[in-house]
Amino acid sequence: MTAFMEPFRIKSVEPIAFPTAAERRAALEAAGYNLFKIDADQITIDLLTDSGTGAMSAAQWSALLSGDESYAGARSFRRFESVVRDLTGFAEVLPVHQGRAAERLVLSALLKPGQASVSNTHFDTTRAHVELAGGKAVDLPAPDGGNIDLVRLRASFATEDVACVVLTVTNNGLGGKPVLMENIRATRAICDEFGVPLTLDAARFAENAYLITELEPEFTGHSPRKVAELMFRSADIIWASLKKDGIANIGGLVALNDPDLAARCRLELIAYEGFPTYGGLAGRDLDALAQGLLEVTEPSYLRYRAESARWFGEALRAVGMPVVEPVGLHAVYIDAGELLPGRNLPANALLAELYLEGGIRASELGTLAFGRVDPAGGPDIPSARELVRFCLPRRVYTRSHLEYVVEAAAAVVKRAEAIPGYRIVHQDPVMRHFTARLAPML
Ligand SMILES: *Cc1c(COP(=O)(O)O)cnc(C)c1O
């Protein structure tokens, strides 16, 4: 059999909203053409993010009911701790409410002002926590966009006071490409040579492991679970947002072996998150996460995830969308600058049309999110690329939902010539893409 299908049946259903064309136009105008400001009940297919949007399994829902809500030493924590220890090999396990809290614990303990964190690419919240700790975030991606550039990594020790090396697996900032085992091992050797810890930002560890089994001959035919175990055992410290490969709606973790560093992280944990056996989560969340971490490395699930993302990418390309290759596992990226040349804020223009056409929500990774405001008051310094990202929530949408998106995308491609550019009418000084108001340049 070569056809792929969802390796699950649907037991619990949630209705989808179908606002009319007039309702969509009104909602978009009221939101200042910013899809973050449209309520979810005005969205038909929501591909804004894969964070916290996954569907839990029957086993996870039943695990919720056995959650132990004791303040200290809950059974739920012990179950979570044991699953994380088996998976990662680390002795010290700290739960937190989401990924950025984990980053804060580790980076505030590791970095002294002026020191550098060197990475294949820091995710935006990671960069923020490096900078809040007084450090400097240095991104050294290799040309493939997943791995870290080993030559520049080695050279960075001569020019920076490096406190840690962070491998983001997969590399979310550059399209979800994997960090290969060969690169993890070589980075490990450089970290040993210079005596600095290797940390993994492991939000999509299972997807990274699956891609390693596809791309590295040494791991052909290996189980993604075994590869993930090996990835974790190559690092000194890991942190993760479990809203991605934990397949739950909230959660995160820190895991490591160093008892002194763990003790320092725990003090911060108590001050900001809660007692160390719940870390800002309910006991039931820890049970759902423990179960999700067992399910996410199942080969049939990962294969379906890879094949549905690739099918979606090919179908969008076939109707004329400039799809960025190669397509990863968690998202498909469109080059809006190529589809809408000469238009201002082309990614926002494409997002607005997709919403008007079919109530589809995706996100912008272009000048609104990454461009910089010229301090001298001139036009914005644009981002290198103008991308639209269709993110794929885990186990939520079927192929027919994605076919609907492809049909809407085809209609948008046909009228591409007539699509206007957009201008910013209001923006805030930080994270402007969440709150900006835009207007079409008619
Ligand atoms: C989502 C994400 C984070 C931040 O996690 P939150 O749970 O959103 O706080 C950090 N790093 C990577 C690679 C992520 O994808």
TrEMBL record:
Necessary cofactors: pyridoxal 5'-phosphate
Keyword presence, Manganese: no
UniProt feature coiled coil, ranges: none
Pfam families: Beta_elim_lyase (PF01212)
Highest taxon of source: Bacteria
Segments forming domain Aromatic amino acid beta-eliminating lyase/threonine aldolase: 46-407
Entry similarity comment: Belongs to the beta-eliminating lyase family.
Protein name: Tryptophanase
Protein keywords: Pyridoxal phosphate
Taxonomic source organism: Kribbella deserti
